[in-house]
Specification:
The structure is a single chain. The chain contains 7 helices and 9 strands, in the order βαβββαβαββααββαα. The protein has about 250 residues and is of the alpha/beta class. It folds into 2 domains: about 160 residues, 3-Layer(aba) Sandwich (Alpha/beta knot); about 70 residues, Orthogonal Bundle (Trp Operon Repressor, Chain A). The strands form 3 sheets. The chain has a 5-stranded parallel sheet with strand order 2-1-6-5-7, sandwiched between helices. The two termini are about 25 Å apart. Homodimer. It catalyses: guanosine(37) in tRNA + S-adenosyl-L-methionine = N(1)-methylguanosine(37) in tRNA + S-adenosyl-L-homocysteine + H(+). Specifically methylates guanosine-37 in various tRNAs. Its main location: cytoplasm.
Length: about 250
């Protein structure tokens, strides 16, 4: 999977792309992640990437010509060098608080794409004409960050763990919270040694060795935990279960 990240702060991604699971995915060749410095495509001697808004108002707005120019330059270089750019162009994702909220189903859909470009905003946001040149707009939630870089990291991290060979166990990602296989439920509780800690014991069912019984217990606990902590997800779980049953 190739990911291009359009950002004013590529230095933020240097440690992120070389450490932990994401770094392992890069070293294994499962993930090819690169940053494009938006400033290099800025205008004038100061490489300006923003300007004052038409109609007045506070703050600065990111210029459509600079943003689109950077995206297209990244894609052109990739195609010329055949650097993992098998598609005619990448799937372009704008990161902003006005986008659809990221969830596991969206992550799974993105992870299946061979090439995506994540466009990180700053200042007061983008000139609205940028939307004509992207495929979708994604937000981490109903809150505002200083820029899209943290959202880009979240997407890369979440997608990386779904790529073949990145996690130690192929089942790990499939059985986690919010996965389609789990019908979007929260994950069941986990336990390890010690068997008892300050009076709190590991459930007996997990020590019995009957895998069918353990699986049933885990499913029951997942439903219970979801109902208690995220009751809003229960309706989605019913819908996903019905979709899987009809497929």
């Amino acid at each position: 999977m190739r990911v291009d990240i359009v950002t004013l702060f590529p230095e933020m991604f240097e440690p992120f792309l070389t450490t932990g699971m994401v770094g392992r995915a890069v070293r294994a060749g499962a993930l090819d992640a690169r940053c494009a410095n938006l400033r290099e495509h800025g205008l004038g001697k100061h490489r300006s990437v923003d300007d004052t808004p038409y109609g007045g108002g506070s703050g600065m707005v990111m210029r459509v010509d600079v943003v689109v120019g950077c995206i297209e330059a990244v894609e052109e270089r990739a195609r010329e060098g055949h650097e993992g750019a098998e598609a005619a162009r990448s799937h372009r994702v704008l990161l902003s608080p006005q986008g659809s909220v990221l969830d596991q189903r969206k992550v799974e859909a993105l992870a299946e794409r061979p090439w995506i470009t994540l466009v990180c905003g700053r200042y007061e946001g983008f000139d609205d004409r940028v939307h004509a040149f992207v495929d979708e707009e994604i937000s981490l939630g109903d809150f505002v960050l200083a820029g899209g870089e943290v959202a880009a990291m979240a997407i890369v991290d979440a997608c990386s763990r779904l790529l073949p060979g990145v996690l130690g166990s192929a089942d790990s990602a499939m059985l986690e919270s919010h996965s389609v296989v789990m019908d979007g439920l929260l994950e069941h509780p986990h336990y390890t040694r010690p068997e008892e800690f300050r009076g709190m014991k590991v459930p007996e069912v997990l020590k019995g060795g009957n895998h069918a019984v353990i699986a049933a217990w885990r499913r029951e606990q997942a439903e219970k935990r979801t109902a208690e902590r995220r009751p809003d997800l229960m309706e989605r779980a019913k819908r996903l279960r019905a979709e899987r049953g009809s497929s």
